[in-house]
Amino acid sequence: xxxxxxxxxxxxxxxxxxxxxxxxxxxxxxxxxxxxxxxxxxxxxxxxxxxxxxxxxxxxxxxxxxxxxxxxxxxxxxxxxxxxxxxxxxxxxxxxxxxxxxxxxxxxxxxxxxxxxxxxxxxxxxxxxxxxxxxxxxxxxxxxxxxxxxxxxxxxxxxxxxxxxxxxxxxxxxxxxxxxxxxxxxxxxxxxxxxxxxxxxxxxxxxxxxxxxxxxxxxxxxxxxxxxxxxxxxxxxxxxxxxxxxxxxxxxxxxxxxxxxxxxxxxxxxxxxxxxxxxxxxxxxxxxxxxxxxxxxxxxxxxxxxxxxxxxxxxxxxxxxxxxxxxxxxxxxxxxxxxxxxx
Length: 343
Hints:
17% strand
């Protein structure tokens, strides 16, 4: 399957820094009384920047500077202060590409950068206090001798990838107008809604937004993130499907009403033609009957026929005239119905 990768992270990461502090190597373990890493951001702390980092390689100091620059240029524009031990500032790191992650997550990648790269170990501490207008982090560094075990970093929330078919959203179902844009969603609309929901959730949880990749040929959406973020994606897709289903249902109902209207109009026109034919036939039958009734009456007056013959002729004439009147009334009613239907 061909597609564009939204996140590419090499096996080894690299960083750059802010101020550099000389001193003895820090104990990598949590010091007594040190503040625990926050899991939620209080309302009176500065917003966490969501950033992209394209780092071509360099030192820890270089990477930190790249993170600081991206944070200032982000939508949050929150400055990031980073304290780096002098012995860690010039450690070399490989290239790294990060997409739509928080500044804190970008710095925390250092904790995993050296796991299989020799003796270097680091931990990132968020030192930001309430009321600060900028973010402050401290990098703790320790040189580990060969064979000396180190305390393991706390397990990170698992990151999983899931695929979701967008075909139901992007294609118009059979029986509906294929070119009607209201009956389908553009890929940009779907991805935009998911991105907005992801960024709002990331701002609350201080986590990196879910990574999204769309493959046009298969119409598959690949979402990569935590289980909670995957539930967010599923919920957003469910809402989008309900929205488009409602649009399609309303359009189908309107289309059915329009088809029923056309069918009723066609049937009514056929009935009007039939009523016109009946009226024409009734008038044709009346035309000879009226003079015949007059002639039979004259014969009776002259004594040629009995009274029965003119009475029969008169009855036939009256019946023919009644047929004409009934046909005229029926035609008039149908024409009125057609006018009401067309209004």
